[in-house]
Amino acid sequence: MLRYTTIQFGLPATDTADIAHVDNAEAAITLIRSVDWRNVMSAWHETQEGPLPAIVFQAPAAKAELRVSHVPMDAAPYDQLHFVQIEKAGWLRSRKITITAEVHSQSLLAQCLAEWESGRWESLVQLLRDQGVNVLD
């Protein structure tokens, strides 16, 4: 089961956002595709406040988050995935892994969400790195 918040606009609020669940990666794709992204992005474009609006999948136990946005460009629509995980890196230190990539195929999006669902963080990171876009580590 994948846990997510409803679409977030701007910076995350300090209060708890609406939390919902989908059963699997396929249901997550259906959820992503059901959003009227053209209107969502149009509203965001007016203020451009904070990061792109996204459906935010969460794995609190792993301190991981996957933000999925769809950019409905006429010529070449794509999904933007932003993965963040905080790992323990010693007694008093932690390391933040942050990767953002554009995903241009439905099959790759499905694969990324399947890795997320299975909790295979390293595999997901590698998939996003292979895209070669906006890698921050």
Structure in words:
This protein is of the alpha+beta class and 137 residues long. Helix content is 33%, strand content 35%. It has a seven-stranded antiparallel sheet with strand order 2-1-3-4-5-6-7. Strand 3 (54-59) and strand 4 form a beta hairpin. Helix 3 (106-118) runs antiparallel to helix 4 (121-131). It is globular and about 45 Å long. The model has no long low-confidence stretch (mean pLDDT 83).
Our estimate of the beta-strand percent is 35-45%
Largest sheet: 7 strands, antiparallel
Average residue-wise pLDDT: 83
Low-confidence stretches: none
Largest sheet strand order:
2-1-3-4-5-6-7
Radius of gyration: 15 Å
Count of individual helical segments: 4
Our measurement of the CA-to-CA distance between the termini, rounded to an integer number of angstroms, reads 28 Å
Instruction: Tell me the helix content.
Output: 25-40%
Class computed from helices, strands and strand pairing: alpha+beta
The dominant shape is globular
How many β-strands, per DSSP?
7
Order of helices and strands: EEHHEEEEHHE
Q: Care to give the gist of this entry?
A:
With 137 residues, the chain is an alpha+beta fold. The protein has helices at 25-34, 37-47, 106-118, 121-131, and strands at residues 2-8, 19-22, 54-59, 64-71, 78-88, 94-103, 135-136. It is globular and about 45 Å long.
